[in-house]
Amino acid sequence: MERGFLIALQHAGIEVARINPRQARDFAKSLGQLAKTDRADAAVLRDLANVLARHEKRSCYLAPQPDEQREILKDLMVRRRQLVEMRVAEKHRLEVARKTMARSILSSVKFLDKQIAALDKEIDDHINDHFDGMRELLTSVKGVGPVTTVALMAALPELGRLDRRAISKLVGVAPLSSDSGKHRGQRHVWGGRAPVRAVLYMAALVTCRRNPVIRAFYERLLAAGKPKKVALVACMRKLLTILNAMVRDNRAWDVLKGQITATSA
């Protein structure tokens, strides 16, 4: 419902900022507005919109114009995820089902398998028609597979359009400061786009083993005493930086790897 409303507003020529509910609530608290009702929320959103409209970086908060083909790809990926979740649930039921129910569950699993296979073909055809060039770029990196590629194309349209710091914060793999005066708090990553972060995590696990540039970076961090989880998140950030630069410059991995190794660590 939100996506449809946002796109309708943009088609009507109205600029829209899509705000995380937590940010809107924090803004309300900063004004001393602790009560929460529909009327109070509407007033807070109005005040927040007025602040963003006058902000010097106003354009950063505006939702990007919709790309119809990317929206279609996103819808296909959402449906695929729903089908996969249903198949997983049925397989879990099968593990404890009696024989009288197993036949019905197996029939359901086979049906879902066919649906997912048909959807995979539809996704592949759509990418061939509209995103084939980007797919070739992303899959040229050893360890970046089809699932990671499709997820990035569908859920991260900003890839190649932002600098490495901005794209890392957007995804949620940039360490955020927690300092006050002379105190230097521990950096943590949080927020961002969970679906993109999930596929980047799996891609980083593979690239840490198979990609010589990422593997060397990972081993260097471990040798410096970094915990494995911290080193892995750093590899996720480095991989995202490389992919972002590749899409920005429209250059494949073999051309970029020396340059990236020298500049993005």
Explain what you see.
The protein is an all-alpha fold. It contains 13 helices and two strands, in the order H-H-H-H-H-H-H-H-H-E-E-H-H-H-H. A two-stranded antiparallel sheet has the order 1-2. A hairpin with a 2-residue loop joins strand 1 and strand 2.
Task: Walk me through the topology.
Blueprint: H1 2-11, H2 21-30, H3 38-53, H4 58-61, H5 68-96, H6 99-130, H7 132-139, H8 146-155, H9 164-171, E1 179-180, E2 183-184, H10 194-210, H11 212-223, H12 228-249, H13 253-263
Domain Transposase IS110-like N-terminal: 8-95
InterPro entries: Transp_IS110-like_N, Transpos_IS110, Transposase_20
Protein name: Transposase
Summary keywords:
single chain, 265 residues, mainly alpha, 3 domains, two-stranded antiparallel sheet, 13 helices, globular, disordered C terminus, Transp_IS110-like_N
Counted by DSSP, the helix tally is: 13
Count the beta strands. 2
State the end-to-end CA separation.
Answer: 41 Å
Largest sheet: 2 strands, antiparallel
Query: Mean pLDDT score, rounded?
Result: 87
Strand content: under 5%
SSE arrangement, N to C: HHHHHHHHHEEHHHH
Taken from the alpha-carbon principal axes, the silhouette is globular
Report a brief summary of the structure.
By secondary structure, this protein is an all-alpha fold. It has helices at 2-11, 21-30, 38-53, 58-61, 68-96, 99-130, 132-139, 146-155, 164-171, 194-210, 212-223, 228-249, 253-263; strands at residues 179-180, 183-184. It has three domains: 2-61, no CATH class; 68-130; 146-263, no CATH class.
